Amino acid sequence: MSTVMDLNLIQTFLVIAEFQSYTKAAEHLGLTQPAVSASVKRLEQVVNKQLFVKKGRGIALTSTAYQLIPQFQQALSIIDNAVVKEKAFEIYCSEALLHKISAIEGVILKESPPDKYLLFDELRQQSVDLVIDTIIAKEPAFVVEEAYSEPAVVICRKNHPRIAGSISTVQFYQEKHCLFSGKWQQATGFEQLTKEASHERKVDIVTSSIASMAMHVARRDCLAVISKSFAQKWSEILGLQVLSCPIEIYEIPYKLVYHKRQINNPAHMRLREQIKALLKLEQSIEHRSKF
User: Fold this and answer.
1) Helices 22-29 & 33-47, crossing angle to 10 degrees?
2) Positive/negative CA dihedral, 130, 134, 135, 136
3) Of the segments 5-19, 60-74, 224-238, 256-270, which one has the largest average pLDDT value?
């Protein structure tokens, strides 16, 4: 009777072999150490050989393990290439950047939910392959890479009765604001980006969409703070003023976030480089347009 090999066991084995540590492998995979140890025992039962032995405080590979590594790597590579041809990558992207990511073959784009913590669950469960957003992950199971940054600006309608062409700090806090409902670590995006102590803003409405913010501001005498590229894209259509923020503020930092299981996946690596190159090109075009 043939033995069915669990691919998860092979992947876990290769990570352990790379780190030569159950603890580091568990952190890399986002699993518990007992779960990693159990996977090794199951694989050893399948191959009927011992794969690791204790060496000091760590572990060492047996001769069988060294023999299996190239065979397993080749097998996974063949499977990955076959699967990639069939399966599209699914990406969660910040609404503010969706207009910058042109259609990429083999990619399904989804708008990120306001609750950023949901993105981590999606990555763990392999429901999504990559996130492009402003979140910062400190968990060892995830990789965070710099991707793109842009200024935040203030928007209001063109025929606002009290604002024309510029806005002062006093005016900024006197006017009512349309706020974005999304928060990270109990703070709004504006609160995280300010370089100085900010005051409480008067609230006109809270929405879960940047597009809704822009459309609401276009109809009422209120303000909103949103990404510059998004504001400029829709300013003419919606009749908006795009103003420099009177509050000293950092640029909005967008990150690529993905599970460490994807770090050496050739197709995923190509996808990441393609996205970063695309965003870099957009940034270069914007920089040249200033002069």
Assistant:
1) 110
2) positive
3) 224-238
